[in-house]
Write a structure and sequence with these properties.
Number of helices: 7
Helix content: over 70%
CATH class of the largest domain: Mainly Alpha
CATH architecture of the largest domain: Orthogonal Bundle
Mean pLDDT: 75
Oligomer: single chain
Strand content: under 5%
Distance between the termini: 15 Å
Largest sheet: none
Number of domains: 2
Low-confidence stretches: 304-312
Number of strands: 0
Structural class: mainly alpha
CATH topology of the largest domain: Helix Hairpins
Shape: rod-shaped
Order of helices and strands: HHHHHHH
Radius of gyration: 58 Å
Length: 312
């Protein structure tokens, strides 16, 4: 039988159209799967960025019932201010105690003056007792009563002087202790006031720095929120742009349908030919197609399910 070369060539190429249709269908599935994976990854990126910003906001300004950084900063400032007020009040009480001690010192100095006056009176009393004894001696027996009075006056003057000395010693000790305590309190109060002032200045600097950093952090959070929102919008736009698999699937389906229609139409128009020659040419076309494959999926899809090949 004479074989028409054109019919043989057309029949051999029409026979591989079903395989090409399968490859087009597999390509469509792979494109759709890849697009869905990319969209899911983009959505995950946007969601993670959003959650990261929300977590940072929760740290700075808590909304779940816990104290945020802003509340803690305000509370710390209130606590330090209260401690500063208590220290200042303590220092003020120390200063008032110093004033009271100074008043006590002044009072004790007044006691010294009173003791000086008592000693003067005691000295005068002793002198008066001596004069009384002299007069008693001159008066003889008639002055015996004056002698007794003179002895009592001398004894009273001596006791008054000793008592005044004893009181003077006690007052002197109290004055020294009061002066020492006043000095200690004054030095302590001065140190406390200096320490309070230094602490106040240091806290003011630290508080200002913390407030500045807090403001910078809030600005960064706002910027991060804006960037996260912009990222979400960009991702949404990218997802919309990537959702082209439907169009690709439709076009591949149209190509596959056109190839099938062409195969059916041309197959019906071809005359009967030599089956051996057709099989040989089909094998050559399949081998050339196999050599053009670069991916294992193509080779797997290109492997025939059975040895039955429909020839025209």
């Amino acid at each position: 039988m004479t074989v028409n070369p054109l019919s043989l060539e057309v029949a051999a190429h029409l026979a591989i159209i079903p395989r090409l249709n399968e490859q087009l269908a597999e390509t469509s599935r792979q494109v759709e799967s890849a697009v869905l994976d990319i969209c899911a990854n983009f959505s995950g990126i946007a969601d993670k960025a959003r959650r990261g910003v929300e977590a940072t906001i929760a740290i700075v300004d808590s909304t779940d019932g816990h104290d945020g950084f802003t509340v803690l900063l305000d509370r710390m400032q209130d606590t330090v201010a209260a401690a500063d007020a208590r220290l200042a009040a303590t220092a003020a009480r120390s200063l008032r105690a110093i004033e009271r001690l100074q008043q006590v010192e002044q009072s004790l100095r007044g006691v010294h003056k009173t003791l000086d006056h008592i000693e003067e009176l005691a000295a005068g009393l002793r002198l008066l007792a001596i004069n009384a004894k002299i007069e008693a001696v001159r008066s003889g027996e008639r002055g015996s009563g004056f002698a007794v009075v003179a002895d009592e006056m001398q004894r009273a003057g001596k006791e008054s002087r000793e008592l005044a000395e004893h009181i003077r010693e006690g007052v002197a000790q109290m004055t020294g202790e009061a002066a020492e305590l006043s000095t200690l309190l004054r030095e302590g109060a001065q140190e406390d006031l200096a320490s309070i002032e230094q602490s106040r200045e240091a806290f003011a600097i630290a508080s200002e720095a913390m407030a500045r950093n807090h403001a910078m952090l809030r600005d960064s959070i706002r910027e991060g929120t804006d960037l996260s929102r912009a990222l979400a919008e960009d991702v949404s736009a990218a997802i919309v742009g990537l959702q082209f698999q439907d169009r690709v699937n439709q076009r591949l389906l149209h190509v596959s349908e056109a190839l099938t229609h062409m195969r059916d139409t041309l197959g019906q128009a071809l005359p009967a030919g030599d089956d051996d020659a057709a099989r040989q040419r089909l094998a050559e076309v399949e081998a050339r197609l196999e050599r053009s494959y670069t991916m294992w999926e193509e080779r797997a899809d290109g492997a025939p399910d059975s040895g039955d090949i429909e020839l025209f």
